[in-house]
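Hi D.,

Good news: the full-assembly prediction came through. Inputs first.
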Amino acid sequence: MAAPTGIKSPTRARIAARTLRTDRWWLYPTFTALVLLAFVAYATYRAFVGEHYFAEPYLTPFYSPCVTTECVEGSSHLGTWVGDWWPLSPAVLILVIPLSLRLTCYYYRKAYYRSFWMSPPACAVAEPHRRYTGETRFPLILQNIHRYALYLALAYNVLLTYDAVMAFKSPEGEWGHMGLGTLILVVNAVLLGLYSLSCHSCRHIIGGRLRSFSKHPVRYRAWGMVSVLNGRHAQLAWASLVWVAFTDFYIWMVASGTWSDPRFF
Amino acid sequence: MGYDLQMKVWRGDATGGELVDYTVPVEEGEVVLDALHRIQATQSGDLAVRWNCKAGKCGSCSTEINGKPRLACMTRLSTFEDGETVTVTPLRAFPVIRDLVTDVSYNYKVAETIPAFAPEPRPADGAYRMQQVDVERGQEFRKCIECFLCQTVCHVIRDHEENKPQFSGPRFFLRYAELEMHPLDTNDRRQLAREQAGIGLCNITKCCTEVCPEGIHITDNAIIPMKERVVDRSFDPVTWLGRKIFRRDQLEEAQVPQSRAE
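Then the structure:
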C-alpha cells in the first residue's frame, strides 16, 4: 500500500477529519454542478433536435451562423457554403466555438475542477485523488489554447451582434421593427461580448503582457478597462450562460408557435 | 460583556495528538489569539502558539480556525455564532512541531530558488527611473506578509506532499509575477515559472485568493498573468514564430537565470 500523502502525511498534525470546516462548503460545487449539467443537457438536446431555431427575423444563437443546406429558409445569413456533407445538426458545427471558450475559461476551470473533479471540492477540503499532475499533461495541457478559443469567440460575437441588428427588421424585411425577441437578442449579444472581453487572456493580450505600462499608454488604458470587466468575469460567465439558453428557449417557443412575439413597434 | 467560549485546540506533535476541549472566559471585541493566550495564561501554560505583532502584519499566527486557514489575531470572536465551538488546529500542509506551531521552512527553501532582481545597468546619471503606473503595478504584490495561508490552502501541496519539490506555491508565483512585471528587471523568468516553479500544476481554483488576509488578488493578478506569459513563451505558435523571425529567442535564452544560488 502506498504511503499516506497530503494531510495524512506522517509529519503533519494527525487529524482524522478530511476537513474541519463547519460552513456549507458543499453548496457552491453542488449548485455549480447542477446548473452546468442542466445547461449541457438542454444545449445538447437543442443542438441535435434540428428544428424550431428560426422565427423570422430571430435566429437562435445555438444555430448562428446556419451554414448547411439543411438550414431552414431565411436562416442562413452567411450562405450554406458547408453544403450537405455534414451529417449532424448545423448547430454542432457552431457550438464547438463557444464550448471551447467556456471549457478553457479560467473561471469555468475553477468551477468544474471543484464541482466535477473535486480537485479540490472546496478550499481546505481534502480531495479524493491519490495523484495530481494539474495542467502539465495531456489533455489538460490543452487549456493553454484558451487565447485561440477567445479569438474564435470574438469573431462569433460579431455574428451574434449581426443577428441582433437583423432582429430590427420585420418578418417582411422592413427596418424599424422591434419585438421582445429583438431585445432578448441584443442583451444576449452584449452579455456574450462582455464575457469574452472580460476574459483573462484578453486582459493579457490587450496590455497585461507588457513589462512597462508607461511606454504604452494606450494599451495601459485599454488594459485598465478590460481589468474592470475582468473583475466581473465570473458574474458575466453565469449571466451570459443563462441568457443564451433563455434566448434559445424564447425563440424555440416563438418558432414552434407556443407563444407569439410581443411587438413594441 | 464577557462569556464562556467553547474551544477545541489541537495539542500534540509529529508523533500524535488530539483536539483538547477548553472553556475560556472571553470579552467582547476579542480575537481568537486572545482566547489562545488566555488558555496559555490560565489553563495550559505549555500551549505552543506562534505570534508576534497581533495586528495582522507579521503573518506569524497563521492557524486553521474551524477548518479555514486564517490569522488568529484577525479572527474576531464576534464572527462566530452564539454557542459555536471554535476549533483551532495547526496549518495542515506543513510538518507540525508542537501544538499550533508548524515548520514552514519549505517556503524559505523555495524562496531561495527564485533568481533575485537583476536590474539593467544604471543610466549615465546613475539614477533609475520608474513611472508611477509601473510602480503601482507591483505594489499589490508587496503587501504580502508571508503568513503562508495561501500555501497551506493550496491543494497541490496540501493534498500531495510529493509535489513539494517541483511546486513553488501561490506566494512565490506572486514573487515571480512581481519580478516579471518589473520594467527594470532584465531576467526572463517564464521558463523557470514553468519548469522550476511548476505553475502548470496550478489549476486556478482560487483558494489562495480566498484566504489571503491582505486581499491580494493572487490568482487574477499574479498566477493567471504568469500562466499567460508561460503560454507566450512555450505554447503559443504565433509568438513562437515571432521570436524565431525576429531572433528574440537568442536574446531570451541568454537571459534565463538558473536560480538565486547560481
